[in-house]
Amino acid sequence: MKPEPKEIRCECGNTLTIERDSDWCLKCGSQIFYDQKARRAHKINNYYMYTVIILVMFFLAYVFVELIAIPAMNL
User: Using an 8 Å Cβ cutoff, are 32 and 6 in contact?
Assistant: First the structure.
């Protein structure tokens, strides 16, 4: 369900009419949100993705050390 069109003012002073949860300012390029709920959801999604990426990197480092580095040092 699309939200009703709403005029939102960017931090740079540009006014945009958006009909989505978020859009990009044409003047400064920053992301503009329809309401605080959309801003909060975006922030939570970013934290989730950063956490997943960091965990994958640690897992790959662990696999490298356990399966490649330690056996290679024992030769």
Answer: no
Domain total in the chain: 2
Range of the domain at 54: 36-75
Does this model's pTM top 0.70? My answer is no
Give residue-wise pLDDT tens across range 36-68: 998 999 999 999 999 999 999 999 999 999 888
Q: Buried b vs exposed e over 37-70: b needs ≥16 C-beta within 10 Å?
A: ebeeeeeeeeeeeeeeeeeeeeeeeeeeeeeeee
